[in-house]
Known about the structure:
The protein is mainly alpha-helical. The chain has one domain: Tetracycline Repressor, domain 2, CATH 1.10.357. It is built from nine helices and no strands. The protein has helices at about 1-5, 15-20, 25-30, 35-55, 65-80, 90-100, 105-125, 135-160, 160-175. Helix 7 packs across helix 8 (about 135-160).
Amino acid sequence: MLIAERGFKRTSIDDVIEHASLSGKSHFYHYFKSKDQLGLEVLSRQFEKFAERGLAILREPMIEPIERLNLFIDSLVSLQTERGFRIGSPFGNLASEMADLHEGFRERLTLVFERWASQIQSLLWEARPYLTEQADTVRLSRFIIATLEGALMMSKVSRDAEMLRGIAADLKRFVSMHIREGVAA
């Protein structure tokens, strides 16, 4: 949470030691060779937590696929609102801060976004009986992520819940444009 709120570069090892109530730098270096290794580990754990909790709704077999996607979008809006717009997306934040500065972060972030996209692609593949023939699930999944990441960044800056809800509604409307007429998703 510390890195998500302050940013990676603005969070020092001393900040981490104090926040984690460690006994000193030797304790930190017992677990991590460097601040970069800590950052990569935090990124991996954040995604695992996101995949386990946040993306779980995308895999819920008792709910229709498009409804699951809508619930997922709603959950991101709720989470951002509950956090008071302090954090935005930890993945988007790190991508904008570190992708050009550190190859390891860029590579790990690429994997994060690819794994997220594959979850949405799987959901869209499951929804294929409802989708138009022109629906490209790969492009659509990337568009959904890009829209959500942009919306989270904009809401962090503006602290405007209505703007975030509006973008979420527009995204759902865009996805619905890829549903065949006469098919209830």
